[in-house]
Design goal:
Chains A, B: Belongs to the transketolase family. 2 copies of one chain form a homodimer. The first copy, chain A, is an alpha/beta fold. Chain A has 25 helices and 20 strands. In chain A, helix 2 crosses helix 9.
């Protein structure tokens, strides 16, 4: 029998626990175990360390908190409610996991203010956090003055066993260690339970030794259930270590407090059940009813409101001093974090004419990036060890490294998924930074989890993908994309852009930048060629930005429409020329982006692809999957639905039918 | 000036080097640096340790060699040629990276005998190797007798920095350490160069410490360029350690021997160029001309032929003794490794009727797996920490663990990509094992690299994916697949199967097993529901195996065809019933697999979807992307092209239009 007078800490911690228990129980769905076990460490973190203003979740200099183990989101929602965020009321908590509630089943930053990133898929949150810490370090290096540190906050993570098993987290953690991101602190909820059961079944590595190898500062807290002092000391120690990220292994009991389900996977992912909820109340001496929070606890939590208001006020003062002393920097800083693009930035976009040399769109992409970088202070990024191939290096800056955080070229290493999650984190720092991440289009396969989350979580990221077809040649079928453009098009909210020449590449970046800072933010993926392509007559940035447009036409209603994207537009142009010489009325449509085209009004779309013109041929060096939408029953598609081959790119293209003769022959067949 | 008499080792090592240099030069494409740097360790391995028969690349008890750093494939091709494999002649080497040559740009097991797995995408090979070692351990535990060890071989890997940066390799390596796979030995070519330049730029972790944390035995060789003795000792040591996998960091110089490009990323991924090739010849004192191999070296290498023949002969004798003593085991072993399925295995497939309880296809999948496991000795697999959710646990066996390698349930942990690559490795052990790997359909995103490779490399794997739509409910949009089925359909050579009920689930497994052992092997991916579905009248294993079939029909030519897959077939059935009551002629087609349907003859396909019937409605709780193929301009698709929502599954399905009323309304609209 537990004494009825509990310390304020116990009251607060159990408040978190029981909000989670009750919410999951009411929804009859969810994950009570982690909130019950991690409540102590979360309380210590939020009560003693986390600097935030519940009434202003967007306060620039707040510490960032990420629950990487997103399934435990009732932990986060409980804290948001208890500390006084307006975004989560008690009613919202009662609506946990219900249609359009503010408390969805995994944390969604676009749904619930106070949630920084979208988690659920394991490994993403901790990797986003590397991006958040990266953004802080970068902005601090760029803007802080010795007497005015306006950028100064920590990034905290609560991560699970599952997070640390995922490869993406090892990638991002290796990067974090390499970069020495000293203001990143991870609390590892070591409850040695996962869905299958004990971690003994599959996860017996020495996690701290691995992290030591990754260059992190390591600590452990033996009793994460009741030893609040040790948790506090460990976090304080971690803050003191400024040249390494820190991980603290906090050993807890999942489902702590539940007599029959604690320390078992039974408490991981299902409601405890009425009887067990009652038994847990008894075991922990919790006399309060469903969703009832003791006033003392609420008062204690709500002190965060005054604390936060004061912290923000102090920062406002500091920033006012900064602006007074460093007017130019102050102006630039404000413009940046408000997401305002400098006026006239589009003037920096290169324009091309058919007289310009034929070039690979990956090269033109490099030219655009280099032209935009001085014009867009927020643009920064890098490649997963393919900078010379992706052409993403910005010559006017250096490498972002330890003690060189002001630079704008990231070296992500051969870590595509880590790169993706880090870029999402940089975007979600919400400070006007526009990150780009690059690799070969084929390796979008390695990072699809992060690409999808950029679309779902509304991250303003630019994905720069080169070597986009069999045209890349000898590297062969393991490297030649076939299904990739189609499969990326299928992701909602992601705009895929496959430019045909320099103007279309500039257009792609215009759109990508606008989407990155738009409302809502949205990601864009560029698909770029390895091989040289001519600059086309009739292309322009403005037309390309519509996603599809008439590149060239005959008089009157066309008999036939040739639709091309990227490297195949040239074939359409050549075939059209010949067909017109033979007296046919042919229109050439370049369609660099389905999504942008579909977003145009009906009148425009009809003007480009009139319904009445049913004879159409689409040409794209990728799968034909999905093209029926634009060519219909009377049309044809020239594509490739099988794996590629290791051979010189020109030969592969030629032999697989990507040549003018084949387009002609197909067109004539369609014309009948 | 180098002395013209070189040791036989130097002659051999330089033979490897110059074949690589010359082949890349001739192709003007490829990666000379790694072969030049890793030639010494590869020579020691192949000369002193690797047990193989060049004249029988399929010899069961051969050691397995994997070049995880697949871009360095000229290293492997050179060794295949030099040691006397028939699969790679000198002409083949001269055709490096040319159309349909046996020496493609990255190693392809289906192209070149002697190559065990397809590599190129980094991190895959070393992870496949965990699967190869897993297969060896499993078969050894099942079949070996104390006096007759017929399964006894090592798995060796040469891996690069890039391989070790990739998250997938950390996942698989953690699993290998957990499992104590003592016969897995990795040589880490530590040349501190990657495409971007020095690894100092991005990869500064203490790799050996990380691997120590992962439970591996660690060693290092300081001078991997010339200290052959140390390389040899390290491999010998590694073989002695029987309870841990081993990694040996061998420090080398990329492009060793090239005066101007050694130790630089310039030698990584491009031909050296005529002048540098000549300079390298001079530096290494190599007097032989293009593709010319000194006879002494060739003779030395070719001793592998006699060695291999003898090793195989000894093994054959051993196996003969085994069969004599242990006839039953011998018979079973032979049948298994020859890929022969036991006669009548299909009888074990459960059959269902509409009277059987409504059930989730994930549950029925579990029933099928449990029924098949005793009937198919090669079937084994597991889940990425979702066994209770995926229902993949086979009750008649235990967990595959250290000292329990005979068991058939794998615990992959939260490591989807590692699981994928490990399963590919198990399949590529080519011993009749049929692995299955399971997770939530949404997390195919995390392992697409491995899924694609299963299709490209012709691996007989079964991918078991559950929770396949918004029907899964409260976990919300981060977990609800939208674009996944379409994007997986777009992968060539992969059959995606979305069964509607128990019979179709059995049918899916029938097909999947046949594909796994077919010629060629091929993977299959199952998409299974979380929620209960009724068993449908008219379904059967045989019909489902055709990929699409008429579930129910009216008399004569239908006016309308309703096409459903998986959980939505029920809606089509219900709507058809109503429409028929209203006097309409309606056909219901269940289409569990596009790929299997397309593989049927034209007559069959026409009989199911007659061209003349243009009024069609397709219903699938996923993206509409690609369905135009089957519904045409006059048809309609009921799907979902936006992200899902966190709410109870039934509510989500209902509100997003997956209900009989909406199918009816859409059908009537189409009928006009």
């Amino acid at each position: 029998m537990v004494a009825t007078t509990q310390s304020i800490e116990k009251l607060c911690i159990n408040s978190i626990r029981f909000l989670a228990i009750d919410a999951v129980e009411k929804a009859n769905s969810g994950h009570p175990g982690l909130p019950m076990g991690a409540a102590p460490m979360a309380f210590v973190l939020w009560d003693k360390f986390l600097r935030f203003n519940p009434k202003n979740p967007q306060w620039f200099n707040r510490d960032r908190f990420v629950l990487s183990a997103g399934h435990g989101c009732m932990l986060h929602y409980a804290l948001l409610y208890l500390t006084g965020y307006d975004s989560v009321s008690l009613d919202d908590i009662k609506q946990f996991r219900q249609w359009e509630s503010k408390t969805p089943g995994h944390p969604e930053n676009f749904m619930t203010e106070g949630v920084e990133v979208t988690t659920g898929p394991l490994g993403q949150g901790i990797s986003n956090a590397v991006g958040l810490a990266t953004a802080e370090a970068h902005l601090a290096a760029r803007f802080n003055k010795p007497d005015c540190k306006i950028v100064d906050h920590y990034t905290y993570v609560i991560a699970s066993d599952g997070d640390l098993m995922e490869g993406v987290s090892n990638e991002a953690s290796s990067t974090a260690g390499h970069l020495g991101l000293g203001k990143l602190i991870v609390l590892y909820d070591d409850n040695h339970i996962s869905i299958d059961g004990e971690t003994e079944l599959a996860f017996t590595e020495d996690v701290l030794k691995r992290y030591e190898g990754l260059g992190w500062h390591i600590q452990s807290v033996e009793d994460g259930n009741t030893d609040l002092d040790s948790i506090e000391k460990a976090i304080a120690n971690a803050k003191e270590v400024t040249d390494k990220p820190s991980i603290i292994r906090v050993t807890t009991t999942i489902g702590y407090g539940s007599p029959n389900k604690a320390n078992s996977h039974d408490s991981h992912g299902a409601a405890l059940g009425k009887d067990e909820v009652a038994a847990t109340r008894q075991q922990l001496g919790w006399e309060y009813s469903e969703f009832e929070i003791p006033q003392d606890a609420l008062n204690h939590f709500r002190k965060a409101i005054d604390r936060g208001a004061q912290a923000e006020q102090e920062w406002n003062q500091l920033f006012a001093e900064y602006k007074a002393k460093y007017a130019e920097d102050g102006k630039n800083f404000e413009q940046l974090i408000n997401g305002e693009l400098p006026a006239g930035w589009e003037e920096a976009l290169p324009k091309y004419t058919p007289d310009d040399k034929a070039d690979a769109t990956r090269n033109q992409s490099g030219e655009v990036l280099n032209a935009l970088s001085p014009a867009l202070p927020g643009l920064l990024g890098g490649s997963a060890d393919l900078a010379p191939s992706n052409k993403t290096y910005v010559k006017s800056s250096g490498d972002f490294q330890k003690d060189e955080y002001h630079n704008r070229n990231f070296r992500f290493g051969v870590r595509e998924h880590g790169m993706g999650a880090i870029c999402n984190g940089i975007a979600h720092h919400n400070s006007g930074l526009i990150p780009y991440g690059a690799t070969f289009l084929i390796f979008t396969d390695y990072m699809r989890g992060a690409i999808r989350l950029s679309a779902l979580s509304r991250a303003g990221v630019i994905w720069v993908m080169t070597h986009d077809s069999i045209g890349l040649g000898e590297d062969g079928p393991t490297h030649q994309p076939i299904e990739h453009i189609a499969s990326l098009r299928a992701i909602p909210n992601l705009a895929v852009f496959r430019p045909a020449d320099g103007n279309e590449t500039s257009g792609a970046y215009k759109v990508a930048v606008e989407r990155a800072v738009g409302t809502p933010h949205a990601p864009t993926l560029l698909s770029l060629s390895r091989q040289k392509l001519p600059n086309l007559a009739g292309s322009s940035i403005e037309k390309a930005a519509k996603g599809g447009y008439v590149l060239s036409d005959s008089e009157g209603t066309p008999e036939l429409i040739l639709i091309g994207t990227g490297s195949e537009v040239e074939l359409c142009v050549n075939a059209a020329e010949q067909l017109r010489q033979e007296g046919k009325k042919v229109r050439v449509v370049s369609m660099p982006s389905w999504e942008l085209f579909e977003a145009q009004d009906e009148g425009y779309k009809e003007s480009v692809l009139p319904q009445v013109v049913t004879k159409r041929v689409a040409v794209e060096a990728g799968t034909t999957f999905g093209w029926c939408r634009y060519v219909g029953a009377e049309g044809a598609v020239i594509g490739i639905d099988h794996f590629g081959v290791s051979a010189p790119g020109g030969e592969a293209m030629e032999k697989f039918g990507f040549n003018t003769e084949n387009v002609l022959a197909t067109a004539k067949k369609v014309l009948g």
